């Protein structure tokens, strides 16, 4: 006889599969142009959008993302909104603290009545609210994390990430393959953030190395987001004299400190930093431009170019930033990302037309087909299905040349 727990799991699985089928069916049904259909937070004139962002705390340098999203929506609204509806963004500070993210999400859903939660920053804060949002069938759209856990439409059918690069497992595999192409016998030192995201990156490194992992990894050392410095970890790793130094962090500070300290002690391995740290303004300048020369990072967004000659999209971004956020550092990848994720949401909402129920918003998110965004690099488009919630799977290896990030590889396909 099946236990009550087995029955519950079976019912949960059936419900999730039924929703997936409904999402797929919604995209094949007759367009909703003949009949307006709204969910919570939507009217003829408005779409109410909830967001949390670390405007304070250790990850506050990333808050430029939220400011750019708000500015982008302002520009869209000044041009008439999306299908005649203004985008009303309610963005709350969660200080990159999961309990505060949970408190803010409840307020946004239960008090502010938003249609969905959009672009929450980070794996841990987004994880803290995923169960609550999925239980209440509230879309958690384009959350900002490269963790592979977000590609789980059966168990988390209301959660989808939009990372700035392939997920952490793919990123680790590409980093390892790129390093081994140069030195097949390379020994690796890994500095990683002690949370789900950092542990996933480390797991990806081990999986990529396979049977060689125990021998090839000279040492792996963790740190906490709130740690004031990672200098002691870097000194310990440097003593291994490893050939490759892999640095995973979500906060620019730790990436900058790791690059600087390795340089200061004369350790000169091939260095890779997490895709979210490929940032001149918040990582390379604090680390020292000379210290950062040669550092590699995987990315899907175009590297910032101060004076683009043949890229009208980058020119448009620069003009937008100078007009909308004149005091912000435009050479900040978190700003480019904010512009990109806001653009992606506008495309999605236009695709929804007048059917703005939560079910259809999620259904359209699960059926993106070769969607181009202005700041994605050539050959990269958004693609999802009801069975695959990974909008971005491919990237390029970027290298810091001492002044700018430049493309250093052909398009690298993720799995």
From TrEMBL:
Pfam families: Peripla_BP_6. It comes from the Bacteria. This is Blr2988 protein. CDD domains: PBP1_ABC_ligand_binding-like. Belongs to the leucine-binding protein family. Residues 46-401 form the Leucine-binding protein domain. It comes from Bradyrhizobium diazoefficiens (strain JCM 10833 / BCRC 13528 / IAM 13628 / NBRC 14792 / USDA 110). Residues 1-34 form the signal peptide. Keywords: Signal.
């Amino acid at each position: 006889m099946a236990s009550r727990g087995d029955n519950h799991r079976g019912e949960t699985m059936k419900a999730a599969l039924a929703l997936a089928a409904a999402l797929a069916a919604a995209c094949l049904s007759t367009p909703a142009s003949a009949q307006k259909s709204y969910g919570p937070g939507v009217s003829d004139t408005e779409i109410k959008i909830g967001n949390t962002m670390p405007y304070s705390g250790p990850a506050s340098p990333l808050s430029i993302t939220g400011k750019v999203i708000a500015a982008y929506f302002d520009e869209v609204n000044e041009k008439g909104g999306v299908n005649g509806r203004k985008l009303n963004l309610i963005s709350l500070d969660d200080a990159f603290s999961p309990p505060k993210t949970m408190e803010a999400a409840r307020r946004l859903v239960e008090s502010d009545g938003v249609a969905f939660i959009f672009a929450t920053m980070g794996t841990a804060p987004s994880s803290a609210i995923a169960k609550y949002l999925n239980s209440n069938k509230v879309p958690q759209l384009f959350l900002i994390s490269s963790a592979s856990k977000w590609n789980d439409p059966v168990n988390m059918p209301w959660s989808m990430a939009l990372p700035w690069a392939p997920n952490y497992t793919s990123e680790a595999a590409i980093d390892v393959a790129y390093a081994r192409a140069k030195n097949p016998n390379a020994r690796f030192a890994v500095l990683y953030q002690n949370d789900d995201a950092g542990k996933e990156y480390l797991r990806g490194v081990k999986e990529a190395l396979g049977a060689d992992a125990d021998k090839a990894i000279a040492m792996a050392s963790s740190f906490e987001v709130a740690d004031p410095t990672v200098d002691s970890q870097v000194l310990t790793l440097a003593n291994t004299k490893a050939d490759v130094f892999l640095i995973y962090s979500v906060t620019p500070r730790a990436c900058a400190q790791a690059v600087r300290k390795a340089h200061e002690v004369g350790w000169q391995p091939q260095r890779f930093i997490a895709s979210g740290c490929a940032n001149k303004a918040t990582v390379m300048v604090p680390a020292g431009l000379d210290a950062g020369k040669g550092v590699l990072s995987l990315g899907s967004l175009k590297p910032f170019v101060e004076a683009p000659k043949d890229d009208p999209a980058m020119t448009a971004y620069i003009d937008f930033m100078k007009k909308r956020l004149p005091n912000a550092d435009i050479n900040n990848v978190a700003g480019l990302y904010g512009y990109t994720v806001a653009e992606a949401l506008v495309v999605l909402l236009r695709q929804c037309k007048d059917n703005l129920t939560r079910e259809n918003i999620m259904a359209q998110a699960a059926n993106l087909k070769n969607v181009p965004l202005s700041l994605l690099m050539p050959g990269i488009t958004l693609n999802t299905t009801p069975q695959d919630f990974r909008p971005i799977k491919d990237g390029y290896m970027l290298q810091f040349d001492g002044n700018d990030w430049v493309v250093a590889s052909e398009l690298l396909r993720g799995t």
